[in-house]
Amino acid sequence: MTEHAEAAPRLTRTQRRRLILGGEYGIFVVAVVLLVSLADWGALKTNFAEWRVAKTLFPDIITVALRNTLLFTVTGFALGLVAGLLLALMRLSSVPPYRWFAIAYIEVFRGLPALLIFIFVGTGVPLAFPGVNFPGGVYGQAAVALGVVSAAYMAETIRAGIEAVPRGQMEAARTLGMSHGRAMRSIIIPQALRIVIPPLTNELVLLFKDSSLVLFLGITLQQRELSKLAQDAASQQGNTTPIIVAAICYLIITIPLGHLARRLEARQKRGQR
What we know:
Blueprint: H1 13-38, H2 41-48, H3 51-55, H4 60-91, H5 96-111, H6 114-128, H7 138-164, H8 167-175, H9 180-195, H10 197-210, H11 226-237, H12 241-272
Helix pairs in contact: 4-5, 4-7, 4-10, 4-11, 5-7, 6-7, 7-9, 7-10, 8-9, 10-12, 11-12
Family: Belongs to the binding-protein-dependent transport system permease family.
Domain ABC transmembrane type-1: 66-261
InterPro entries: AA_ABC_transptr_permease_3TM, ArtM/GltK/GlnP/TcyL/YhdX-like, MetI-like, MetI-like_sf
């Protein structure tokens, strides 16, 4: 018998990693098996994937709900982009009141829930300014509410993009005799917007989902967006299939946009190397 007992062989780092990974896969497989064995697939199909109920949503879910959702999103994004660019320039301005206003706006509206802004636009503005109507009615209200929500976030994104443009670009433009304003319009802002396209695409995705809050503005049947139409149909049918169909419609838009944002960001990183 040896003086020292034989020590158990130690696992290498690769072996430990494989062991941990195998355990994680095992836990996942067990969880899936339990889920499949315990689920009532008949009840799930009846309540979440009933084709008879899904058929009743067409064509309104495309021609009315999805169309309105896209319209609300695009108009709100356009308004938010313009306001965000203006706020970003004010945030970088050498005039203190402009900077103070931009900072106050950004801090306030980034700190407020989007729902509260929609309620304010739909209820507070008409009470504060009686007789004043938004152009386009609910569509105008939705554009303003979504624009106000997104402008604060876009302003910071665009400001970061402007600051990311090399300082030498402005110096070269001034050397060529351009004024500060012309250099910003012709050289700095176009480059900044190219830099911030990926985060702005992510903002578009968020805005597309926030468009569901339009229902708090008091909309008619022909003004319903995806969430409102699905909610009404689910209540009428006593079935949650309309919610699943609406979710699929959202994903058809948001997944490609999210993939596009990641592709643009990866391409931008490769270009910086």
